[in-house]
Design brief:
Helix content is about 60%, strand content about 5%. The chain is mainly α. The protein has a two-stranded antiparallel sheet with strand order 1-2.
């Protein structure tokens, strides 16, 4: 089967379980922005970051795939989603992200001392991590909009993205410290 289906030519796209929505729908914006973030993390993986950052990125991406699936599922179809055993973000995922940030802060003595100017110092990887942070914040805003309109019940998706933007900030500082190839 070809990836070209022409089903989107009408301005609508598929959700999980056969439902369709306009491509401009808030739900599509939310999971599309998480997809964009996940794609950007693929760029980060190959931007010269440390192996420990690649491992962390891989674990984060695995969780984001579940978030995208859940976001692509209407609330009324979540029982089917769960029945199929698809991943959803849980309290443990949010706690895990917090743990990763605290670990990096402690190991590298990274503290917020004012906003960094992305790309001023560090490496290409740290600059891409700052870009990932800003895309993550946009994804979080899209998810919060779904929550506020009562179209998403899982608060963990917004919490995960909120913590993830913090993790990206810490990782960018970590990469700037450990991989200090200057960005010109």
């Amino acid at each position: 089967m070809s990836v070209i289906t022409k089903r989107g030519d009408s301005g609508e796209t598929d959700l999980m379980f056969g439902k369709r929505r306009p491509k401009t729908d808030a739900r599509i914006e939310a999971y599309g922005t998480v997809d964009e973030l996940n794609s950007l993390m693929g760029v980060v993986r190959h931007s010269g970051v440390s192996e420990s950052t690649v491992e962390l990125i891989d674990a984060i991406q695995a969780r984001l795939v579940g978030a995208m699936g859940e976001l692509a599922t209407l609330e009324e179809d979540l029982p089917k989603y769960d029945e199929k055993g698809y991943a959803r973000l849980k309290d443990e995922d949010v706690a895990w992200l917090e743990e990763q940030a605290h670990k990096l802060e402690k190991e590298c003595d990274i503290r917020f001392k004012g906003w960094a100017r992305p790309g001023k110092e560090g490496s290409l990887g740290s600059a891409y991590l700052d870009l990932a942070r800003s895309v993550c914040r946009r994804a979080e805003r899209r998810v919060v909009a779904l929550r506020l309109s009562n179209e998403l019940s899982n608060v963990n998706t917004a919490l995960f993205l909120n913590r993830l933007s913090d993790v990206f900030w810490v990782l960018a500082r970590f990469e700037a410290l450990t991989n200090s190839t200057q960005v010109n």
